[in-house]
Design goal:
single chain, about 150 residues, disordered C terminus
């Protein structure tokens, strides 16, 4: 084979590997979303939401409820770290549970503010990856809404 033919072959193999990697990344993202949703339990989250609202004084909330809230948000924070670092596919996350994550953040932003206020300055990064993920989803959606109807956009 000529050098040119070998180079084309290598490029074709690299392209195929890249496509396979992206497919696996999307599949892993779906699997992770199923795990995070089953581990955090929609029932547990609904139970928390019934007992608190956007104006809840988290300092007066029983420790058991704060612990359950921590459990829910910590699972989503770990998931957000993986999305934000590129391990999981943000497009899949946005399309399948973006609205859910935005509502989750909106429901618990007062709790996050309470936690951040309560801890020393060095630790004010609690749930920062979940916050970043939600902001990225909001930006994606804002960009997509003004581009709707343009050929070649998703």
């Amino acid at each position: 084979k000529s050098v040119l033919a070998q180079e084309k072959s290598v490029l074709a193999q690299e392209k195929a590997m890249d496509k396979d990697h992206e497919r696996r990344k999307k599949q892993a993202t779906f699997e992770a979303m199923q795990v995070i949703r089953s581990n955090t339990s929609d029932q547990l989250e609904r139970s928390i939401r019934k007992q608190v609202n956007d104006h809840t004084n988290w300092a007066k909330v029983p420790e058991q409820l704060r612990s359950e809230t921590r459990e829910v948000l910590s699972g989503f924070e770990r998931f957000a770290v993986a999305v934000n670092t590129g391990v999981y596919d943000i497009e899949i996350v946005d399309r399948t549970m973006g609205s859910y994550l935005m509502k989750l953040w909106q429901s618990y932003d007062e709790y996050v503010a309470y936690v951040r206020k309560k801890v020393p300055d060095a630790n004010k990064k609690y749930y920062c990856d979940l916050e970043e993920l939600v902001k990225n989803i909001e930006k994606r959606r804002a960009n997509q809404s003004h581009m709707s109807g343009v050929i070649g956009t998703n």
